[in-house]
């Protein structure tokens, strides 16, 4: 087990809005195929900061949006226009290219939740983009524990959301005073992010903030809590493919990143169609390419 610290970062393209980021980490680019984990609403934003995320592109990944409160309006370039509320899952599969926006619904709570990315394997990363919303997710239960399965499988319970590598994502609530063994797959690696309360994981107390990484080889995970806890469990088969990750793109090479950036900046509507209800000047411009050749992220 190893704790990786959270870090406060400005949300790209939105001045004054900050998130707590726990993945990727130096030496830990992925947990299974999970390659990005932000908690929004957990740190103070600048006064008057806008939480609306204007149109921006993605390639080679899936975005998972999981709010704890508030409501978010999602629009994208394949024609989706939906609102998401707590307990519901938005899953967008970018494939070869998609653009989307996420706006807070006026009058809703300020918003607190997670956004995660899943790297698509080579067999799926150039597929036609699509969007799913799941309003009724399955639940895995043990005495004192209730886990909503967002992605993949936990024990015998499997989410209906499309997954392209063996993985799991679950929102877990443990009652005060409970001690439970969560079943794991020995070929998976896992990570735990505590949202509220303190959970003792295999003897180690973990509080909100850092990401606890668990190496493969475990068949169960003992967790306990005195006052009750809420955490997210992610995991999967270690992602062995090389991955170049920059801005909103997950690719395999520097050249792929350049091509995607050029397509976005050139307003290539074949790759990144316009989003209904948005004007061209709302599109978030791509940042400058760094003055070096981007290389695959490595472990260790």
From TrEMBL:
It comes from the Bacteria. Residues 170-266 form the Pirin C-terminal domain. Binds 1 Fe cation per subunit. One of its GO terms (molecular function) is metal ion binding. SUPFAM superfamilies: RmlC-like cupins. Keywords: Iron, Metal-binding. CDD domains: cupin_pirin_C. InterPro entries: Pirin, Pirin_C_dom, Pirin_N_dom, RmlC-like_jellyroll, RmlC_Cupin_sf. Residues 19-118 form the Pirin N-terminal domain. Its cofactor is Fe cation. Fe cation binds at residues 56, 58, 100, 102. Pfam families: Pirin, Pirin_C. Belongs to the pirin family. This is Pirin family protein. It comes from Nocardia camponoti.
